[in-house]
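To close the chapter, one final illustration. This time we ask the reader to focus less on the individual chains and more on the assembly as a whole: which components sit near each other, and how the overall shape emerges from the parts.
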Amino acid sequence: MRKILAALLIGASALAGAGTAAAQTGPLRIEIDQGVIEPLPYAVPDFVPETPSAAEHAAQIARVVAADLSGTGLFREVPASAHISKVTGFDDPVKFADWKAVNAQALITGAVSVTGNRLTVQFRGYDVFAEKELESALQFSGTTGGWRRMAHKVADAIYSEITGESGYFDSRVVYVSESGPKNDRRKRLAIMDYDGANVQYLTNSASLVLAPRFSPTGDRVLYTSYESGFPQIHVLDVGQVQRKILSSGDGTMSFAPRFAPDGRTIVYSQTQGGNTDLFSMDISTGAKRRLTSAPSIETAPSFSPDGSHVVFESDRSGSQQLYVMPASGGEARRISFGQGRYGTPVWSPRGDMIAFTKQNKGRFHIGVMRTDGSEERLLTASFLDEGPTWAPNGRVIMFTRESQGSAGRALLYSVDVTGRNLKPVKTPDGGSDPAWSPLQK
Amino acid sequence: MSGLKLAIAAVAVLGLAACSNNQWDDTANSGGAGVGAGAGALDPASPAYFQQTIGDRVLFAVDQSHLSSEAQGILQGQARWLTQNADYVVTIEGHADEQGTREYNLALGARRANAAREYLISQGVAGSRVKVVSFGKERPLEICSNEACYSENRRAVTVLAGGLTG
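The assembled structure is written out below.
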């Protein structure tokens, strides 16, 4: 059952020999779950500038498309230095023989025009060996300042057509930016593109902030702030950078807030008399409801994408383990039974899996399991990995990795759900507690 | 909260002024801090006396909030001092070491702070004078990644506020 990531490439020439059910899915295809082969080679020459002021963006957009595709580990770029053909006109016929000669199985061409501060991108994808245009040809326009988003949309369309999965490049990540030494760590809320570009700070570092989460549409962020001296739940409108405190009660700790898929209900932890339980709140009316009532710690909730269930962690058995209960509360079923402790469960946006942090024998792991706890797989291992978040397509997980010792610092990493392609995510300072947005509209 | 901040600032100043005999003093170099000549000069009603002579904190075992007999002894001293210095209110700050996930450690720190609070109440301190808050693993005192540091970080610290007019 352990399907390691796989890129099954069925080139046009291989297809004649392979000739199976894959035939009707089209010749250029990466089956992410199938047996491993190797990344699909592609070329993305600089896009063609169609207006004089578009030259810089035309080159930059092609580079971001390449970074997105190659960054998945499923694609490998044929570098410009190897190209034989130069694409000088978007509508010029493609010289397939030149791209076959450098073994570029996919080719992406594009054109960029700029009028005032309006930027328009057109692109086409080609299956080089089939000498056929892909179906994803599209046109996007927006402001010049939004050029990276348009590049991500191009890459999402190509990724989506070739893998059959929805894309995830046109998405954002909210996280906690960290600076300063371990015993004087300054934390502030930050938001960025999924690839670390366009970082914007949402709070200053005067108050400790923890564990932000996006609303289902990405317009708001829930997080925990110590602004009052006690941890309380705040909600922030990303566009307006306006915020509001949701929890109340002096001396009552509220933390670990998460949105329900309806965008109006939240679940969170509240501590009374040293005991932490889960509650839900309608954030428009403030009406609260207790979901658990146990002398143990209940925290780190996460909704199933259909909103019907909540997975959370509890030490009711004597150590941290994962449980699933109905979203309205009621009997919880334990789903983690392996060795060690399990925490920070997060339901996949596809609904099929739960990512978690596992502590075992002094090491931390990010892992995934089916929602019934079966098929547990550990994706990472280090001194301290924690807090997974899912890419909108449920294929990639981002998390916090903290290094040990007095110089230890927290950084963001990502890994494919297959365990492949582990890599740091570039941030200006340290980073922790990432939460991935849905795909932007 | 301004009272609380004031209290921390005052304690910090006193801590620097006195020759520290407090093994948990944030600013002290570990080791070598002898029971100093200055200690005898502390006013028994001063926050510095509370912090240094009585001890403002208790430590915990890994993933536990149980109070050891040593911890109980320190809390008994805190309770006596608070009974004699009735102007003060306190906030007990619970902390965890870095071996644990963030939100669990917040809840664990709250358990520890509450264990200390319950003990103070059992020793006659009015519950209305004792607030609790947890910082989880967010505020380590010691920054190495081994038990020598972790044991100092798993703590509940009783922070004085109010009554600082004199």
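The helical segments of chain B are 2-17, 47-55, 69-84, 102-122, 147-153. The radius of gyration of chain B is 15 Å. With these observations in hand, you are ready for the problems at the end of the chapter.
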